[in-house]
Amino acid sequence: xxxxxxxxxxxxxxxxxxxxxxxxxxxxxxxxxxxxxxxxxxxxxxxxxxxxxxxxxxxxxxxxxxxxxxxxxxxxxxxxxxxxxxxxxxxxxxxxxxxxxxxxxxxxxxxxxxxxxxxxxxxxxxxxxxxxxxxxxxxxxxxxxxxxxxxxxxxxxxxxxxxxxxxxxxxxxx
Length: 174
Description:
mainly alpha; Arc Repressor Mutant, subunit A; three-stranded antiparallel β-sheet; about 5% strand
């Protein structure tokens, strides 16, 4: 740990920061998101100043390509912001410190869009199924009914999840 250790004066504080960064990596890895993602976010979250890619690479001792890819992913989730540093042409980043905003804009908004797309796809499949039913023999209709029933269950599940995601109380909590 080089750049963050230079930013904090206490060796004990530097050690606590390192443990937090390691913990962030273990947490995201346990969710299948990769260790570097959690480490990069935790590092930026704790850093009192924006960091450039080279500083993140040096701090975490990982490849620049890995950090670049991870930072882009974190930006898509509104977990990290690109910031301008006067007099420096490099790209600098800082973490979003408002977890509610991160959830609202980085997780819920894209999830809601994906759910809207999913229902359109289910509707298209249902239309195709209805057309296919018109042209099937009795044996094929039995198979089609199974598909139709499962599509209906998928649609009901989608409706429940969609209702949960679009519940005004969720927005109030966040």
